[in-house]
Amino acid sequence: MKTPPRIWFTLALVALGKAHSSGHGTPADEYQLKAVFLYNFAQFIEWPESAFATADSPLVIGVLGESPIGSNLEITVRGEKLRKRPLVVEHYRRVDEIRNCHILFVSPSAGPNSKQILMAVQGRPVLTVGDTEGFSQGGGMIRFLTEARRIHFQVNVEATRAARLVISSKLLRQAEIVGKTGE
Amino acid sequence: MPQPKSPRRALVRRSLRRICATLGLAILVLIAPALVKGEDALPSDSELKKLSLEQLMDVEVTSVSRSPEKLLEAPSAIQVITNDDILRSGATSIPEALRLADNLDVAQKGSHAWAISARGFNTDSANKLLVLIDGRSVYTPLFSGVFWDQQDYLLQDIDRIEVISGPGGTLWGANAVNGVINIITKSAKDTQGLYAEAGGGSILQDFVGVRYGLTVAPDVYLRVYGKYFDRDSEVFPNGDDASDSWRMGQGGFRMDAKVSPDDGLTFQGDFYSGDEGVATGGRVKVNGNNVLGRWSHTFSEDSDMSLQVYYDRTHLNDPVPGNSVAPEGRLIDDLNTFDVDFQHRFRLWDFNHVVWGLGYRFTDDAVENAPGLAFFPTTLDHHLFSGFVQDEVSLVKKLTLTLGTKIEHNDYTGFEVEPSVRLSWTPTEQQTVWAAVSRAIRAPSRIDRDVRLPTPFFAPLIDNLLIGGANFESETVIAYELGYRLQVASQFSISASTFYNVYDDIRSTSLGPPPFGLPLFYANNLEGDNYGLELSANYRVFDWWRLHGGFDLLREDIHVKSGQFDFNKGFNETADPKHQFSLRSSMDLPQNIEFDVALRYVDSFEFNNNGVPGTVPSYFELETRLAWHPTKNLEVAIVGQNLLHDQHLEYVISSPNPREEIQRSIYGKVTWRF
Asked: Which fold has domain B73-673?
């Protein structure tokens, strides 16, 4: 006679498994969370003096392409200041619309060719953030990844150095450091 | 001989009741707090902003979005099954995962056989769909169809499955008459670390899978995986065991490397081996391996190229039952495929995106014939040359015209041309309207030209019951399509496609010479048309609750050309329901619990079992999955499949195989991630 279904083994494991409090309250929307991450990143990065016109010029977060992160960012940064600088969100539909910004989020809808986009801001002190595959390999500085329903991120340190950005170790400690891509 | 009703089934029924009771109680216990608290709003922004970086990384995310934004503009009826869709559905095989595409007709014939097609023609040897895994074609030249039992992968590592219904001849070549299924696995970079899964149940008796991914050098990523499973047989309509249990082991690797800023290299391979029982007695042995390499080079932002080479080998050892005209025996098939494919993409004068490519495929098929089923010549070397070009022209800001054609040369019919014209209009950012006219062909396969059903008991009076047609030509389709897509924020999206296909030279069976009219032979005497509608919608009710619905409508009129003859009166090439719909619900519940339910309805359809017509009745079926993440790295799940009936009929294979029904089943699974 065939042995009973392996269900019981699995259920036993369930019973033995330890309970774990589910993070912090109810689950969040992916892009709301990423917007808060960007707000956080800004606090752990130092831009060179030349990146700002005056002591109270705004810190600009640019969003390239259509993305739900745009509206979430507006809400997150409303009324906030970072080291006395107001935070401002700008939306760009195409690469040639990118003006002076300090953080650039490249949304997946901006196209698969992140290389072209990253070249447009190369050499400028702009923190590039994305969540598409190959973003770090193409020279993107921070890439979001979702695994087991939690967001974590990779930092391409070589790329940040090339842009003359100083990243606090507090940020790097939480990140997966990605090797240099060459160039 | 069929075995008596097994006591195992009664045990399963009891276990099922026990499991349901326990689950019901568990669900209640776990949901109770949420029910009492009432529907929770999103965590407020100010709450999230207070969290440290470390704490933010511990917050759970509800939507695992892939980027369907570019999909919005595609001028074809494309649906994408994401990795998350596959995992949440509890699917345990690629055919089960394909049920998630609303534009496919997926019917399970038995324990290890499936009938899958798009837009009709889901006949026993369905041949109008092109299926690729990472660019490697997996249909067999024996009958231009797919042996679904031999296409498998660690489902965890499948990135997505793109299902395009409608002719894909221009880009993909012959055989993509009614659709293309593109199974894409994750890059090795995205499958790092150790992953293991194991479990078992009533039909999927036990299974195990392991994958280990590592970084071997800077920018060089590798994964290796292995999997194995044992599946029980399905049953005959009277409940008796159908003796088609099977087991399969598979392993493989994938390496992705960035060798320079502009060059990527991918190298991957798999091997599998298994054996399967068949209802008519005996066991089938299958094994195979493949290896694929791809080099991609970026010239500039708008220009890149890729060169791909693969080798694929399959071995099939099949028992062929005896009958009144021939004794039993075995059919052994060994197929070697070697394929080279080159593609170049570039921009011309700012408003043209051009893609062109060249390909060559060599197949070497060697058959050891059975007394009752044979192919002549036993060994066949086949050369396929192909070239294609496609230009995507931005006419005005929101209007894009895509023109393209594929030209192939195959050893059976010579040159074939498959052109296509597509128009895509995006009136607003969230909407796309598209239209297309295309021509596609299905080139002859070995069954159309080379098959023989010998009758040794009656030789030399009659040599064969049926033979392939020496002049069998390609089947053709001219397809007219129209589609619409709408995306409303991240809340709601819907896509609708309609089509009208005109078919010519569809396979038929003609009478042989007098006095017996034998052997019958294959000819191209059917023609006709079909039309239909495919609808697919997604609705995010709350952040933690997603709904998905799909509906298909199909009307077919395939008939014998006037003045011609078909032994089966035009009924043999179709076995398709007129309607299908599906409804899926996906819930992320508190305490790290996931609950998914999928309901499907398939209308009845008529089949023609080699001259014996019949009907497969309509049915509703239900799948559910309950999963729990006690820790970040551990997942425990229970999945119930085909829950609404003890057993039900989805398909009838042509004789001599007796019909089989699919049983209710349940399995449990544990997943570890390190």
From this structure: Maltoporin; Chain A (2.40.170)
